[in-house]
UniProtKB/TrEMBL annotation:
Domain OmpA-like: 43-161
Annotated keywords: Membrane
GO cellular component: membrane
One Pfam family of this chain: OmpA
InterPro entries named among the record's database cross-references: Bact_OuterMem_StrucFunc, FecR, Ig-like_fold, OmpA-like, OmpA-like_sf
Keyword 4Fe-4S: no
Superkingdom as given in the UniProt entry: Bacteria
Protein's recorded name: OmpA/MotB domain protein
C-alpha cells in the first residue's frame, strides 16, 4: 500500500514537472516572437520598412547590385509620395565595440540615403538618417542569423512639419486629431497615400493630411483636447495639426465653410488658418470662416463669435474683436472692411421639447435684424438640414412630417454676414392630434390666468437718481431670455442672474425689463427713472397769495420771493431768501372805516433757514422748512396823510411737496410767518394779539 502511494506521488511530480517545462517553452517561444519586427512595404503610422543585411556586401556599407531591388522598391515608394518624409535607421550587431558598431550603422543609413537621392531623385530634405549601433536590437542574438537580422536597416515615416516618427517601438505614434464626423462623400489623402481614399469615421489625422468634402457632404475634425473644426460641403483643406509650427499654419483652406470651436490648449496660444491671399490668426473659441474660390466667384468672409482674431490680407493686418466680421467679395480687392455682427436672436415658439401636430408649424423669434437664417435639422449638431432659408422677418411657417427636429436662427447683416446662432431647440412632430400639455397651456394662457415667469429686479416703480449710470440687476428662471428696453441681454448666467448698466439722459427715462422663459411664460417690469444731476446750489422763484391770520382790516395780498439754497447733505439744504409782499387795506378816518377808499401796504422780507427733503429719490418729495429773518413793513397810517415804516422779527415754518418733472421741479406748499410786536398791523380791536401771515407758495426750482 505504501509502495503504491509512493509510486502515485512520483507520477504526480513528474506530471507537474513536464507541465512546467512545457509552459516555460511556450513563454520562451512567445517572448522570442514578441521581439521580432514584421516587415512592411508601406510607411504609414505603425509600420516599419526593413532593408536586410544581405542587401549589403558582408561587413560593409556597400549595396550589393544583385540584391539592390529591395532598395529600388523603397525608392519607388518614396518617389510616388512627394509629401512623405522618412527616417533611415542604421543598426548593427553586438560585437563588443560600441564606437565601431555606431559608425558602421551610420554608414549603412547614409548609403541608403545616397541611393535614393541619386538613383530616384528624392529631395535630400525629405530624408533623415541616424545610426544606433547595437543600442536597439531587433531580436535577441543567439545565433548568427540573429546577428544578421540586427544589422538590418529600418525605415519609418516622419510627420510633415515637426519631423516626428510615425512609428515608435513598433506602434503608431499618437495623432493630434481624428475625423469625428463623416456625412456623404468625404475623401482624405495622407502624406503616405498615393491618391485620395474614402475617409473613415474615427480616422486618425496627422500633419499634412488633405481632406476633400464634396457636394451634400460634411465632415468634422476633433482635436484631442475637445476642440472641433466643422467643414461644410465643397470644402478643401490641408490639416497640419494642433501645435504651433512657427511659420506654418495649423490648417490651410482652399475653399469651403469652416466653423471653428476651439478650447484652449496648453501648448497653443492661437490657431492659424491660411486662405487665398491671406491668413487668419484666431485667439478665441468660436468663429465661422467661409472661403469661395471658384472660377466664377471668389470671396472670403469671417464672423468672430467668441474671442478675437488677427487677419493678414494682402500684406495688411486687421484686428477683429468678438462680435465683428468682414467680407471680401472679390480677391482683387486690396483692403477689407470690418462689420458689426447682429446680436443672437431670442427664440419664441415652438418651445423646447414641445410636441406639435404634423403639417404646418410656425417658427417665431425676436431680433433687431431684418434678415435671419432659419435652420431645421434632424441632427442636434446640424450636420445636415431639412430646411434652411433666409427669412425677411421674425417668423416662418414650415411644413414638417412626423419625426424629431432641431431648429435655430442666426441673424444676418445686410451683406449676409451671419452672427452667432441661437441655442438649438428640439421639437417632436406627431401624426396624432396633440392634446395641449401643461407646458403649452402655460405658454398660451399666461396673460389670461396671470401666471408669469420669474422676474425679480431692483427696478423701483418710479424713482429719482442723481448718478447717470444706473445698474439693473435681477434673477430669472434658468435658460430664460432677458430684454432691457427690447434689447436682448447676452450676459445672463446659467443660473438666471443678470446685471446691466444703463446710461441715463437728464430728466425722465423709460425702463422696461422683459423675460421669456423656456416654457413660454413671460413677465415684465417697467418704470420711469428720473435722472437729476446733483446741484450743490439751487435757485427758485416763489409766488404766494398772502392771507392775514388775525382779525384785521387787511385783505388778501400777493408776494414773491427769490431763494438761493446750498446742499449741506443729501437731504438738507440751507437757504437765503429775499422777498416782497403787497397787501390791500381799507382806509380809516376818525375811527370809522372808509369802505370807499383802499390803500396798499408793502413789506420786504429777508430770511435765512433750512429745507429738509424726506424722500429725495422719489418723484414726489415732501419737505419741511424753517426760517428766521426780518420783516420790513411800509404801511399807511390810519390818517390818510401819514405813512409809517416798522421793522419786525419774523420767524416761520412751512411744509409742502416738490414734484419732479422732466426739465423742471415745481413745489407747492404752505408757510406761516409769525410777526412779533405786530399789533400795529391790525385794528385797535385786535390790539395785544400776535399778527401772522399765511402764505400759499408756488415755487419753481431751476
Amino acid at each position: 500500500m505504501k509502495a503504491q502511494l509512493r509510486t502515485n506521488v512520483l507520477k504526480e511530480k513528474c506530471f507537474f514537472k513536464h507541465c512546467l517545462c512545457f509552459a516555460l517553452f511556450l513563454v520562451s517561444i512567445l517572448g522570442f516572437q514578441s521581439t521580432v519586427i514584421a516587415q512592411s512595404y508601406e510607411l504609414s503610422p505603425g509600420n516599419i520598412w526593413i532593408i536586410n543585411d544581405d542587401v549589403f556586401y558582408p561587413g560593409t556599407a556597400t549595396i550589393n547590385k544583385s540584391t539592390q531591388a529591395a532598395v529600388d522598391r523603397l525608392g519607388l515608394y518614396v518617389a510616388a509620395r512627394p509629401d512623405l518624409k522618412i527616417l533611415i535607421q542604421g543598426n548593427w550587431s553586438n560585437e563588443g565595440n560600441t564606437v565601431r558598431e555606431k559608425l558602421y550603422s551610420e554608414e549603412r543609413a547614409l548609403a541608403i540615403q545616397r541611393f535614393l537621392i541619386y538613383t530616384h531623385n528624392i529631395d535630400p530634405s525629405r530624408i533623415q538618417t541616424v545610426g544606433y549601433g547595437s543600442a536597439r536590437p531587433l531580436t535577441v542574438e543567439k545565433t548568427a542569423a540573429d546577428k544578421a537580422r540586427n544589422r538590418a536597416v529600418t525605415i519609418v515615416g516622419l510627420t510633415k512639419l515637426s519631423d516626428k516618427p510615425l512609428t515608435k517601438n513598433g506602434y503608431a505614434a499618437n495623432c493630434t486629431a481624428y475625423l469625428a464626423l463623416l456625412e456623404g462623400n468625404v475623401q482624405t489623402k495622407a502624406p503616405w497615400d498615393v491618391q485620395f481614399v474614402n475617409g473613415r469615421y474615427q480616422q486618425q489625422l496627422f500633419e499634412g493630411h488633405k481632406l476633400n468634402v464634396y457636394n451634400d457632404s460634411r465632415a468634422a475634425i476633433r482635436f484631442v483636447d475637445g476642440s472641433l473644426i466643422s467643414m461644410g460641403e465643397n470644402a478643401r483643406v490641408v490639416f497640419n495639426g494642433g501645435l504651433d509650427f512657427g511659420e506654418e499654419p495649423n490648417m490651410e483652406i482652399d475653399r469651403g465653410k469652416i466653423h471653428i470651436e476651439l478650447r484652449p490648449m496648453s501648448t497653443r496660444k492661437d490657431f492659424e488658418i491660411s486662405f487665398p491671399d491671406g491668413k487668419l490668426i484666431f485667439y478665441g473659441e468660436r468663429a465661422l470662416l467661409n472661403v469661395i474660390n471658384g472660377e466664377k466667384a471668389k470671396s472670403v468672409s469671417l464672423s468672430v463669435f467668441e474671442g478675437n482674431a488677427k487677419v493678414i490680407y494682402k500684406g495688411r493686418e486687421y484686428f477683429l474683436q468678438e462680435g465683428e466680421g468682414f467680407q471680401v467679395q472679390d480677391h482683387e480687392q486690396d483692403t477689407l472692411k470690418k462689420s458689426k455682427l447682429p446680436k443672437t436672436p431670442a427664440l419664441i415658439l415652438p418651445l423646447d421639447n414641445q410636441t406639435v401636430y404634423k403639417g404646418k408649424t410656425k417658427f417665431s423669434w425676436t431680433t433687431n435684424a431684418k434678415l435671419n437664417l432659419l435652420q431645421i435639422s434632424k441632427k442636434p449638431d446640424f450636420r445636415n438640414y431639412v430646411y434652411e432659408e433666409v427669412v425677411a422677418g421674425q417668423n416662418k411657417t414650415v411644413t414638417l412630417e412626423k419625426g424629431t427636429y432641431f431648429w435655430r436662427v442666426s441673424s444676418l447683416t445686410g451683406e449676409g454676414l451671419p452672427g452667432s446662432p441661437s441655442a438649438a431647440r428640439r421639437i417632436l412632430v406627431s401624426e396624432e392630434y396633440v392634446t395641449m400639455s401643461l407646458i403649452d397651456k402655460k405658454a398660451k394662457t399666461v396673460f389670461e390666468e396671470g401666471e408669469k415667469a420669474t422676474l425679480i429686479t431692483n427696478v423701483p416703480k418710479d424713482t429719482v437718481v442723481h448718478e447717470q449710470l444706473f445698474s439693473v440687476m435681477g434673477i430669472v428662471d434658468p435658460g430664460s431670455n432677458v430684454f432691457i428696453n427690447n434689447t436682448l441681454l447676452e450676459n445672463v448666467s446659467p443660473k438666471g442672474v443678470f446685471s446691466q448698466k444703463l446710461r441715463l439722459i437728464k430728466g425722465q427715462n423709460e425702463l422696461s425689463v422683459d423675460t421669456r422663459a423656456q416654457n413660454g411664460l413671460q413677465n415684465q417690469v417697467s418704470a420711469k427713472i428720473y435722472y437729476q444731476p446733483i446741484d450743490k446750489i439751487r435757485c427758485a422763484l416763489t409766488l404766494s397769495p398772502v392771507i392775514p391770520v388775525t382779525t384785521s382790516n387787511y385783505s388778501l395780498g400777493l408776494g414773491g420771493k427769490f431763494i438761493v439754497s446750498y446742499m449741506l447733505a443729501n437731504e438738507f439744504y440751507c437757504k437765503m431768501t429775499a422777498g416782497y409782499n403787497a397787501y390791500l387795506v381799507e382806509a380809516v378816518a376818525n375811527g370809522f372805516t372808509n369802505t370807499n377808499r383802499k390803500q396798499v401796504n408793502s413789506s420786504i422780507i429777508t430770511e435765512i433757514g433750512g429745507i429738509y427733503e424726506f424722500f429725495p429719490h422719489s418723484t414726489t418729495i415732501p419737505y419741511l422748512e424753517m426760517n428766521t429773518g426780518l420783516f420790513w413793513l411800509n404801511r399807511s397810517a390810519k390818517v390818510l396823510s401819514e405813512t409809517r415804516k416798522s421793522v419786525y422779527f419774523s420767524p416761520g415754518i412751512g411744509a409742502g411737496v416738490i414734484f419732479v418733472t422732466e426739465g423742471q421741479n415745481i413745489g407747492l406748499g404752505g408757510y406761516y410767518r409769525l410777526i412779533f410786536q405786530g399789533s400795529d398791523l391790525i385794528d385797535k380791536t385786535a390790539e395785544g394779539q400776535f399778527a401772522g401771515l399765511l402764505e400759499i407758495q408756488l415755487t419753481f426750482w431751476f
